[in-house]
Amino acid sequence: MRHVLLSLLMLLAPLSGCLTSDILVVDEEGNCQPLPPRGDDGTLKILTYDIAAFSDAMLANFTEQTGFAVELVYADDAGGILEIMLQTQASPQVDLAVGLDNTYLQTALDFCLLTANNADTSTVDPSVMELYDGQKAVPFDQGHVCLNYDEEVVDGENLSAPQTLWDLTEPAWADKTVFPSSLTSSPGRAFMVATVDYFENDMDENTTAFDWWKAMADNGARFTTGWTEAYEIHYSGGYGAWVDGHLGDAAMTVSYCHSPGVEAFYGGNWTKSTSVNLPRATFHQVEYGGLVNGGGNADAANAFLNFLLSEDINRNMPENNLMQSVLTNATWPEQEGYRYHTDIPMLNANITTERIGNDMAEWLVAWADATS
Amino acid sequence: MRTSPMSSRFLGVHPVQWMALSLVIALGIGPIALAFSRLWAVTGITPWAALMTFHEQPGATEALQFSVLEAAASTLLTVTIGLPLAWAFGRYKWKRVRLKRALLFLPFVTPPIVAAVGFLALISPEGFLSFFGIDLRGETGFIGWLAAKTGWDHPGHFVALVISHVWFNLSLMVRFVEPVVAQLDPRWEEQLALLPAGQTRRGRLQHLWLPVLGPATTVAAAYTFFFSFTSFAMVKWLAPSSNTLESLLGELGGTAGIAGYRTETSLAVLGIATFQMLLMLFMLVVAGRFERKHSQVLSLHNETMNREQHGPAPKRWAWFVNGMLLLLLAPLVSVVIGSFRVRSNDPTNNGYEWTLEGWKQAWSGDYSTVPFTEALSNSMVYAVMTLVVALPLGYAVATSLVTMRERGHQRAAGVLDSLCMLPLSMSAVMVGLGMVAGILRWFPQMFQFPYLPVVPHVMLVLPFVIRLLVPAIERIDPVFAEQASLLPMGRFGSWWHSRGAFLVVPATMAGSLCLAFSLGEFGATFLVVRVGSWNSLSILVDQVASRPKFDPLMFPTAMALATMLMVVTLVVLSVNERARAWRMRHED
Amino acid sequence: MKIELRKATVTVNNKVIFNELNLTVESGEVVSILGPSGCGKTTMLRASCGLASLSNGERYLEDERLDDNVIRPEITMLFQQPVLYPHLNVAQNIALGAPKHWTKETVNQRLQQVLESIGLTDFNQRSVGSLSGGEAQRVAFGRALMQEPKVILLDEPFASVDVARRMELAAMTRTHLKERGITAIHVTHDQDEADIMADRVVRWTDLQPPSKSGEEE
Q1: Which residue, A4, A99, B480, C96, has most beta carbons within 10 Å?
Q2: Per-residue pLDDT tens for C77-112?
Q3: Where are the domains of chain C?
Q4: Which domain covers residue B547, as residue numbers?
Q5: What is the CA angle B303-C87-B514, rounded to 5?
């Protein structure tokens, strides 16, 4: 009996004392306290999601150039990166976080998850730096989130392209739209932010974005967990037609303004997908890399950020990562209609990163209520 | 001179076995306790109070209804098909039985995303089922009519999900039931055939097959229910408009347990996870009690002789078993086909080209950060480590429980048994949260430990190992041990001849489960932090298959990796079956 | 070797199986104990070899008192149903009785002798699952002989064998026991079998004080 108790005690006793929350990095005045770094062990640990550009070859290239080895730690998506950083903030296990976008960045800054870097951002386009120009995050790619639709369905005869977002709540669009959830998808979340600005600036002062979302839900809009499910399974205008299990029951979804360009690039300069280019109905999304507060290998981390911003790597973002470069004079590739089929937004939603950080929690609750 | 060393034992169990038991229980309790305490701290609400809010959580009641319905349907269909399949497979003499057994087990260890893709190929509007006028995916035709007539939301998706669960879990039924059939002393049947009760099929079912196969079937059915109830990936792929409780938790779980951030999801997760855990525990206890009540010590018989005696299967059974094998392989075959097929760039039709490019990309590793060979090596290492840790641990626990019951400590054994089964009742989200909280608090260096993935693998496979070994040990006639104590054998010899040799077959089964669970990455979701260089082959497949497929080569590359994973699994399972063959050869 | 039970009592779940049983079997003697089924004979044999505990009383081997549950290599037992290990063939089952210090050659030599003596010379490689009841019991007996025990306890060893063969086996068994000077306690409910086997036949009821066996405490 002694053995039993002793064994159980040894294994379970440490549970005592775990009924406390773990925020250690913000002082009473809300200032960020730097955590002691976890030390340099020669291997740069990067927390990221499955970024296509981070191939074996690319990482090997970095190691060859700098001598720093790299280890990737995966989250499911941009939101997952933030979640893991929050979960592990008391004892960070990574050195660099790459892939937080500007809908998550402010939260990361508010929770003091990032610390200052010394990467050289002089070659970054000023329009990108406008969104955030502090020392704790470095942009490495960008895109514009917008609605995409199938031109064969929205052919101007049976169905016309919307002139306002309220057009999508009409019976003609019933059951024909699909949106990745704002709760679980970063493009979905970005588009939701855009709708906040859109409806704050439309002619009707009595309705908000969430009235529109409710009307969309009432009009048969589908909501999926992630972008993949919405685009591959439901959206009829994209590559999903070749994917087993494709339903193609939605003529419109949320993606990027350059997604039709990517479709054409891989589809032999042909696509039936195009973007909805309404003012403020698009969102300028920028993805960032930043040193983790409490992480180690600072030299390697800074070197990686500079590597991401190097000409060789960053200019090739459209081909390697299906996103746009952040460097000045960035262009889309000409080949196979990539640039031709990419829309340039008329006017992006204008919501600051700070406001996103302050209001996002409230917006998500309102969105969930509106669409449930 | 030998004595029974009872003085150092408690409830008849040796201290070393107590340590093993304690470790297994702690492995199960630890993460879940940590997760609950974390959520409690973040929300300021007890699990019980959160449970009371279950019905208020968006989608929870619907998810519960859906979980119960699809799990019940899946279980019923699995038993209906699986029981006769296992019976026929265990009774008759089959050619290439080891290969067939390995093939039967393959679905169980197929990563869900691979299975999902395979199923989608079959149920698509242009898929295999469309030849019979059945469109489960687009829900046109008969399925559409059914939906309209009954008001049933997405019946096609429901049916597809149930079929996929049956597909996964048939092998469970075979794994648990087949050995009982194969090793049953033929005198039971022969005796019954001479009695009035045994003259009818119903009588034979009632007086022989149901009592004999009931416990094993119950266990397999219980696991089928658990797996179906907690279905996650298959729900998202095959029934995207629906949620089980587990998939709902999966959606919410990433943001749970973080102080000051999205507290509403912490509350939702706490309430839903508490509810699910209590429900699963209840079902586990009930299933365990049924199994205990109806288990009996059956005399074991030589499997080869039994099969010889019954001979090859009659035609109808041969058609049934071989037909089921083909059906089970169908989704996997479509995965293989998918690896050679690339969509053409001809914009005027949905044409395909046949090419090896996907295989080349898979081998070269251009689409991933871990080459195929490294992922394969990781998979094998994890699988072997899982086997090496879980099998002895599971055996130590199984013998402890059997000993306790033999010594009359039924209640203690029952409680400890249920605690060992805890991982089955737990949500992957909660275990992941608990592991992160626990590891970070006490052993943050563990995140640098490259074999960390083995921990959740062991945790999840242990209940199965224990469930396989306990009845197997109980089935051994104790007279063999008594006889061994009277013979001049050493300790190991005595153990081997009175117990070890009888457990070769169930241990092989358990070993297959260990290897298969690990290869299939059942535990991957338990880890919130996934280090790239730890990627197993299964994770690699998932990684590539989940990427946007603008590039036509992405999908065939993923399918090529999936095919390689299936081949590796088949080889490993076949090798493992050799142990069983050794036993059968020895008895010839 | 002489084996004795003195005032041996076994109680299981408050039921007295036997009470104050006294039995002495001299060295080399074969004693048959006659009693009906279920009277406690098997339990008595199990207690004699240490497989069951005595609630009271003592057990002696060659006048040396043995502690409860101590199993001595000099004592072996033949169970009512022959206990043969299904994963081993006939030869391997018999060889399990070989003392550990024997060399492989010695084991093989003795094995052949035993097989011959029990009339199963060609059965070396046979699977035990294919044996008849009588053959199986002979293999079990052969294994017991391999052990070169001083005492053999036989629990209705021929119960599963037909009548004709039973008497033959009983005679064969007695011959082997007497040749080797092995002390034996043989329990049966068959008078004829007891007469063939034993130097002395004892009734079960004579082993205990009257009117106390099988009573509830």
Answers
A1: A99
A2: 999 889 998 888 999 999 988 888 899 999 999 999
A3: 3-207
A4: 15-587
A5: 70
Which tokens belong to C32? 């048959």
Nearest to B10 by CA among A1, A38, A344: A1
pLDDT in tens, B28-44: 888 888 889 889 999 99
Q: Give the dihedral of Cα atoms C120, C126, C131, C136; nearest 10 deg.
A: 60
Contact C56, C7 (CB under 8 A): yes
Interchain CB contact of A344 with B (< 8 Å):
no
Asked whether residue B6 is domain-assigned, the answer is no
- Chain B interface includes C71 (CB < 8 A): yes
Question: Domain spans of chain A?
Answer: 34-142+285-331, 144-284+336-371
Topology, domain A34-142+285-331: D-Maltodextrin-Binding Protein; domain 2 (3.40.190)
Q: For B435, how many CA atoms within 13 A lie in the half-sphere containing its CB?
A: 28
In a domain, B421, yes or no: yes
Sequence-ordered list of residues with C-beta below 8 angstroms from that of C102, at least 6 positions apart, any chain: C110
Report how many domains make up chain B: 1
Q: Which residues of A touch B39 (CB under 8 A)?
A: none
Select from 3.40.190.10, 1.10.10.10, 3.40.50.2000, 3.30.460.80 the CATH code of A144-284+336-371: 3.40.190.10
Residue window 265-324, chain A: list those with CB within 8 Å of chain B.
265-268, 270, 322
In contact, C157 and C137? CB cutoff 8 Å: yes
Query: Nearest residue of B to residue A90 by CA position?
Result: B440
The answer to whether the CB atoms of B240 and A8 lie below 8 A apart is: no
Shortest distance between the Cα of C13 and any Cα of chain B, in A, equals: 12
Greatest Cα-to-Cα distance within chain C, rounded to the nearest angstrom: 55
Q: Which fold has domain C3-207?
A: Rossmann fold (3.40.50)
Q: Take residue A47 and report the two structure tokens written for it.
A: 């927390």
CA distance B301 to C122: 23
Tell which residue, C17, C2, C7, C23, has the closest CA to residue C202.
C23
Q: Can you read off the two tokens belonging to residue A197?
A: 């600005």
- Residues of A with Cβ-Cβ distance to B260 under 8 angstroms: 21, 23, 111
| Digit-coded pLDDT (tens) for C178-202 | 999 999 999 998 899 999 999 999 9
